[in-house]
Design a protein that fits this description.
Order of helices and strands: HEEHEHEHEEHH
Strand order of the largest sheet: 1-2-6-5-4-3
Structural class: alpha+beta
Number of strands: 6
Distance between the termini: 16 Å
CATH superfamily: TT1751-like domain
Number of helices: 6
């Protein structure tokens, strides 16, 4: 269940819950289809997306994998959906190079130009939030999270009211990529 302190996520809850449930169901089907027997317990399912603390308009989802594997899984999920991968920026390494230490953090940029460019047509400044950015971070306690900007927030930020179907699609794709990477 999505937990949020903001009504901005209210319309997104059913979509994200449905995507998370579908992802869990698909993972269950794939597990049954696997013919190799294993005695290892199945990993716990990923938690539902939630509002990020201290960050307006940011959704996050806890990964059941380590940091490096989660980054690799985001890239694989992007490729699997036929979405264009632009870049992955190792922010931790940027900090090391500047002699400023931060925890593990990688920003993955991806998008579907036929969809995302429509946001730019509606408001060129939406280019500050497109292509999609998904951040993978490792917290001090070792937990790994995926975070991305809520597309309802993006629509409000740039006063774009003419593309509700496109924002809905972008929300569903980003949530599906995060769910696939996290579980």
């Amino acid at each position: 269940m999505i937990r949020s302190t903001s009504s901005a996520f209210a319309g997104l809850r059913p979509v994200l819950n449905g995507i998370a449930l579908a992802g869990l169901m698909l993972g269950s089907v794939a597990t049954r289809a696997n013919t190799v027997a294993t005695t290892a317990p199945a990993p716990a399912p990923a938690a539902a997306p939630e509002a990020a603390p201290a960050a307006d308009g940011v959704i996050r989802l806890r990964s059941t994998h380590g940091f490096d594997e989660t980054v690799a899984r985001v890239k694989a999920a992007v490729a699997g959906k036929g979405v264009r991968f632009f870049d992955a920026i190792d922010q931790h390494q940027l900090g090391v190079d500047a002699k400023l230490l931060i925890g593990k953090s990688t920003l993955v940029l991806f998008g579907n130009p036929p969809l995302g460019v429509q946001f730019l047509q509606a408001n060129r400044y939406a280019g500050l939030d497109w292509p999609v950015r998904m951040l993978v971070v490792e917290e001090d306690d070792g937990s790994v999270w995926l975070a991305w900007t809520d597309f309802d927030y993006v629509a409000r930020r740039y006063h774009i009211t003419s593309r509700p179907a496109q924002f809905k699609m972008a929300s569903e794709v980003a949530a599906a990529i995060a769910a696939e990477a996290a579980q």
